[in-house]
Amino acid sequence: MVERTTSLGLGFCLALTACNSGGGGGDTDSASTTTQPSTLSPTESPPTGESTVGGTTPDEPTGGSMSDVTETNTTPPTSTTLPPPTTGDDTTTTGDPSCDGLECQVDDCSGAPNTTTLRGTVFAPEGTLPLYNVTVYVPNAPLAPITEGVTCNLCNDGLPGDPIVATLTDTNGQFVLEGVPAGADIPLVITVGKWRRELTIPAVTACTANDVEPTLTRLPRNQSEGHIPRIALTTGSSDPFECLLRKLGIDDSEFTLPDAAGRVNLFVGANGTDRYNDANNGGADFPQAVDLWNDLERLKLYDILLMGCEGGYHLEDKSDQARANVAAFADIGGRLFLEHWHEAWIINGPGMWPNTATFSDEPDLPSPVTALINTGFPKGQALSEWMVNVGGSMQAPEMEIVQGQHTIDAVNTDLATRWVYTEDPETTVQYFTFNAPVGAPDDQQCGRVVDSDIHVSSGDQVNVPFPDGCTTTELTPQEKALIFMFFELSSCLIPDDMDPIPG
Length: 503
Hints:
The chain is α/β, with parallel strands linked by helices. It has helices at about 15-20, 240-245, 290-295, 295-300, 320-330, 345, 380-390, 475-490; strands at about 40, 115-120, 135-140, 165-170, 175-180, 185-190, 195-205, 210, 230-235, 265, 305, 335-340, 355-360, 370-375, 400, 405-410, 415-420, 430-435, 445-450.
């Protein structure tokens, strides 16, 4: 594991252009120096902002509890923090009249306040897959509701709730919060982008390590457990992409028609799955993807737009207006995941979109084939480590892929970042990203685009009423890689050549 040598607060650099001169991120395949989580100390409080922190009842109690602390097989690395407010004695209050709320419960611990810790592991909604780069923090104020609809979410915007201390999960999904308040009913927030779960820890003992029960620290499966971003997914003929969201752990109750309350809406793309089964939404037909693409106001209702492979460009469904709308959605903060052949949106996109990569149309790669992960930037190094940690790779920085395509030859490193690629038997790009508006200064970019040349949900079926075609349960290596990319896409925006920070 690469060790972090410094601690970064949320006030790392308000002017991103002063910190970074690169537009698209690195593409040098050398080890990064920083994949450990950054930490916000008790003295680095960002602006307050976004419901009152409340408890969440675990629905599958397994693992340790706050009253029965057990050691895990892997001890999470401890993040460095700055000292909390000083105290006059060893009581559970700071003795500092300027402290406020829970700040006054940070125990001095005989001059070692950082020995009061909360530690745990954050998982995907399905409860077993640990996640990297998820923000975990103790707030000192109520959280406002998350804004609905597409928004510009930058990492340096700060966290809501006036955090006392914040950190990120590492490539094992683990976190350590140091210098936390001691006492009863300590609030804890777990968030990445617009995924948010708010917990209440029943008791935190001062001057010792406190383990958070793992059933609490997975992202929400439904809205009763927390906030889920609003997601639109367009189906296609060549990959049952919609099944991956189910395997991710999102409850079936969250898959609804757009005018219902669910957070995931399915739209039918060219020759893709087109309706629910009778037990879900009464067997209703999916609305048309073209109607979504042609209506910018409808697109703005969503945070994330996922597009499953349609087996071809199908430009007849991608009008000039639709292409302008999709680009505009990204420009204002939308997150796009484009699966194979949906590079049509980039090749035929407005402005500098076509300049982000070099495209081709060559025969498919052998299946399986060994691909490489670009470790020349912080999150690429993290992906390489994470894939080994979750069993998606036997050897870093490699991963095996099936049904790899060859429609992307290279990326423009001034505008985009290569994540996964092959060198043998052909030089290809299998995953790349860019931020939008394309070519704008870093501090003026809001949106994020992932383009994949891989079919993901192999083994499941298309053109079977949803979710009847979703029959597989185990995650393949490339499905794990896509889940990493999905949550990376969901997260707050930061240039690729910078270390992630809580946000």
